[in-house]
Write a structure and sequence with these properties.
single chain, 885 residues, mainly beta, Methylamine Dehydrogenase, Chain H, Immunoglobulin-like, 3 domains, six-stranded mixed β-sheet, 29% strand
Length: 885
């Protein structure tokens, strides 16, 4: 059943005089799909153990805060199974636990594989079901006991390694952890310790910070059960550790760490290390924060005995590397860092940097495009660095602009702290280009919206589509985006991550941490762009987000801070397993205040969720509302005759319709006029009025039309915008497209020639009949020459498929495997299946499966006038899955 907040959920805004009726099927889905991974009082076992959903690894001492950071690492030890990092930065001895997936400790010195997927509850037959909960302090030992029940009967002997840092007892080791990717040919991971000592190890330099890069290898299996001191790496054979530190006191290097791919364009993967309190250069801006980037080409391949000083990166006589400094004092640049993926389609990795104290506390997230950035370094305060203040500046700025975007919180009441978390969204809209996420956990400033938090997904595109300086409330019209708003007190966006596909044929999911209400949300990607604003209270609605909400409560022990950290990874080429024996996405959620017994308050824990054990919905491919343009000015025949310059105002008539989820779209009352965009030009002064002659459409008036710079001849006009928050679907995108003729005359009803018998076919778009004699003769089958006189606008594949009526099972599979949403039969009011009058689509008897080859990509380039213009070039890639039957 549904745990956590049980109060009434906010309904959609409803129309006047129309009563709200809850949708029963949506409520049922919420009840069935919600997972509470705790919900029991010790010594009972949490649901993740009794329900066989995954693995729960918990701390053992008070205020250990295990799970303050987590990372899904992939195959770090050569077993073929993914491993996980769980940071425990507080308590008597800060530590980081490396948990090996699907491995058990057979003897004191050997390990063996026991696949988590094929085990049952209990993991060992005929014993109490306590094998899916383990204690981090006994990793790699035999005879382990269940930390809740205290029983060793049937307990699983989890394998792994514990890391500590002896040079500073209060190092906060594990404050950040991350998958570094492949470094010098070997999978590696990063551990941050922002309260550690400086590069010289001076005992008075606590808070300077360190970062440790640890290389993976098959040798790690032989180290299971050992505790490795990262500050004395040569004491342990078979493992290579590279240490970074700084000579700038109080920098807090290691507050964030990330592997960022080929960002510096030198053919190797790079790593980034955030230092939130760094002061860059002698006399530089105090405590602006910084991010230090180094290429794998400059990372040692074996253990270094002397820490590498990151403050010397890029300096004369220093180490090769790049320094990116905060724009102003106290910005906390580097509070979060992440690889963004390839957001602009140039083949290079891009970088995300969070500075949540910038912009007056509303925060700023920086997207920096990868490339040869060395030429952009300037020398200020006797120091070589790049200021983040230059990111997204207009071309021609001095010093030169840094390609990318500076995206700040929207302002308003409170401090949003945008950039407290930043992460790649993978290819969330399945267009072949990476997308990005920005977390704003303090969004919502009133007493009824305090700390809701929000996550903004910005969809990437070629040619630096996400570019410039803007706020999350004023995202450019050219950038498609999705806003996800948390519940009261959620602090949604405190942590972000992506997950490999769970449903076959779908794109990746995203993870959103909301520790204020002990929640995390898993949302599946879409086959097309999904835009607008949604409440995460609607996360499990199959008609919209189709996701899953996870919670972790322990009655009587208070908050768990579940969702403070999240991590997953994408499936890579050649991968054979995840944490178990499949390729279904697995992930981990941290709960640093999780309490397992009264003797270990806030010991914390990490919840490893196996994707095969949960059910995830299939969301709509897109939620863009389609409207029809029926008239422009006084022109009522397509292509509409439109004067490019006069009169000053242009009237565009658009129709009512339904949203992709079946809600009504009434153009005259639902459209937000301040969001009207025509051909990419924003008309914030637009007006929307009801058409006095047609109750089913509205008139959008924009001015001046000259801003459109319409060409002469044939072209396309696209009007789009957002719906009002109070409309049935909330803030969603609508769009209408029409063919126009920008020739002489404006607003007329035609201007084309009278057509009788035509001997020479007219070019597409110029045929505007006043009177017309059919050219088909006595046959209902037109000739090619006759058809050439008509405008040709091929149907997009999804529209063409919708003309047929595949059985419901085929419709679901086509969407799941190919991302093509096929609408069912649109019926009349009789509501009878396949019967009645007014049916808009063909019967299922004409339906047949296509001949696409699995795994192949097909491209169609349509000539002439294409509606919409974005479908002129179409690509369709089979996901490599055969349809049943």
């Amino acid at each position: 059943m549904l745990f956590g907040k049980r109060g009434p959920r906010p309904s959609k805004a409803v129309r006047k005089k129309v009563a709200f009726r809850p949708r029963g099927e949506n409520l049922e889905a919420k009840i069935l799909m919600a997972f509470d991974l705790g919900s029991t009082t010790p010594p009972a076992l949490p649901n993740i153990a009794t329900g066989n959903v995954g693995i729960n690894m918990v701390g053992s001492t008070t205020s250990q805060n295990a799970g303050a950071s987590v990372a899904e690492l992939g195959d770090i030890n050569g077993t073929g199974y993914d491993s996980f990092l769980i940071g425990s930065p507080n308590g008597t001895t800060p530590s980081v636990s490396l948990v090996f997936g699907s491995q058990q400790q057979s003897t004191a010195t050997t390990t063996s594989t026991l696949d988590w997927l094929n085990t049952t509850v209990p993991l060992v037959t005929n014993v109490a079901p306590n094998g899916r909960v383990g204690a981090l302090n006994t990793l790699g030992t035999t005879g382990q006991v269940n930390p809740i029940s205290g029983s060793s009967t049937g307990a699983y002997n989890f394998t792994g390694i514990t890391f500590i840092a002896s040079k500073s007892g209060s190092s906060q080791l594990g404050f950040s952890v991350a998958n570094a990717g492949v470094i010098n040919g070997t999978q590696a991971f990063l551990i941050g310790a922002p309260n550690a000592l400086d590069a010289a190890g001076d005992a008075t330099s606590i808070g300077s910070g360190r970062v440790y890069l640890v290389y993976g290898s098959t040798n790690l299996l032989g180290l299971s059960g050992q505790t490795i001191d990262l500050d004395n790496p040569t004491a342990t054979a078979g493992i290579s550790i590279v240490t970074y530190a700084t000579s700038v006191l109080g920098s807090r290097l290691g507050a964030s760490v990330a592997g960022i791919g080929n960002f510096l364009n030198d053919g190797s993967n790079d790593i980034a290390m955030g230092a939130t309190n760094a002061t860059v250069g002698t006399g530089g801006t105090a405590n602006s924060g910084a991010v230090y980037v180094v290429s794998a080409n400059g990372i040692p391949t074996s253990t270094n005995t002397t820490p590498i000083d990151v403050s010397l990166f890029g300096q004369a006589g220093g180490t090769a590397g790049l320094v990116l400094a905060g724009a102003a004092a106290g910005n906390q640049a580097g509070f979060a860092v992440s690889g963004a993926g390839d957001v602009n389609g140039d083949g290079l990795g891009d970088l995300l940097i969070g500075a949540p104290a910038a912009a007056g506390g509303n925060g700023t997230a920086y997207l920096v495009y990868g490339g040869n950035l060395g030429g952009l370094v300037t020398n200020n305060f006797n120091y070589n660095f790049i200021s983040l203040a230059r990111v997204g500046q207009p071309a021609g700025s001095s010093p030169a602009t840094v390609p990318g975007a500076a995206i700040s919180g929207g302002g308003g009441a409170g401090s949003e702290r945008a950039g407290a978390a930043v992460y790649s969204a993978g290819d969330f809209n399945s267009d072949g280009v990476a997308d990005i996420m920005i977390g704003s956990p303090n969004y919502g400033g009133s007493s009824t919206t305090a700390n809701q938090g929000r996550v903004t997904i910005l969809y990437g595109g070629a040619n630096n589509l996400i570019n410039g300086i803007f706020t999350l409330n004023t995202i450019p019209a050219a950038v498609s985006s999705l806003s996800l708003i948390g519940n009261l007190g959620d602090m949604a966006g405190s942590a972000l991550g992506f997950v490999a596909p769970i449903n076959s044929g779908q794109t990746n999911e995203v993870l959103i941490g909301a520790p204020g209400n002990n929640s995390a949300y898993l949302l599946p990607g879409h086959g097309g762009t999904y835009t607008g604003s949604f409440q995460l209270s609607d996360a499990e609605n199959p008609a919209t987000l189709a996701g899953v909400q996870f919670t972790a409560t322990t009655p009587g022990f208070g908050a768990t801070a579940f969702g403070s950290s999240v991590s997953g990874r994408l499936v890579t080429s050649g991968q054979i397993h995840t944490a178990d024996s499949d390729l279904v996405g697995d992930f981990i959620i941290g709960a640093p205040s999780y309490t397992i017994t009264s003797s270990a308050t806030a010991a914390g824990g990490g919840f490893i969720v196996q994707g095969a054990m949960i059910t995830l919905g299939i969301p709509p491919a897109t939620n863009v509302i389609q409207t029809t343009i029926t008239q422009i000015d006084s022109s009522t025949t397509s292509p509409f005759a439109v004067n490019p310059t006069t009169p000053d105002a242009m009237k565009i008539y658009v129709t009512n319709s339904t949203t992709p989820t079946g809600q009504p779209f009434v153009a005259s009352t639902d459209i937000d006029p301040t969001t009207i965009t025509v051909n990419g030009v924003l008309f914030a002064n637009a007006t929307v009025t009801a058409d006095p002659n047609n109750a089913n459409q509205a008139i959008i008036t924009i001015s001046p039309r000259s801003a459109l710079k319409l060409p002469s001849g044939n072209s396309t006009l696209v009007v789009s915008g957002k719906t009002l928050a109070g409309s049935p679907e909330g803030v969603q995108t609508f769009q209408g497209t029409a063919a126009i003729n920008g020739g002489s005359g404006g607003g007329g009803s035609g201007g084309g020639s009278t057509v009788g018998a035509v001997s020479t076919p007219l070019p597409p778009g110029l045929f505007t009949p006043v009177s017309y004699l059919s050219q088909f003769g006595g046959s209902f089958v037109p000739t090619i020459s006759a058809m050439s006189q008509y405008n040709y606008a091929p149907l997009p594949m999804s529209v063409a498929l919708s003309q047929y009526l595949p059985p419901a099972g085929f419709r679901q599979r086509i969407q799941a495997f190919h991302g093509q949403k096929v609408a069912g039969r649109r019926q009349n009011a009789s509501r009878k299946n396949d019967t009645g009058t007014g049916v808009w689509t063909l019967g299922r008897s004409v339906y047949n499966r296509g001949k696409f080859h699995n795994g192949n990509t097909y491209t169609w380039v349509h000539s002439g006038i294409i509606v919409p213009t974005t479908r002129k070039v179409q690509r369709f890639t089979s996901a490599g899955n055969k349809l049943p039957g």
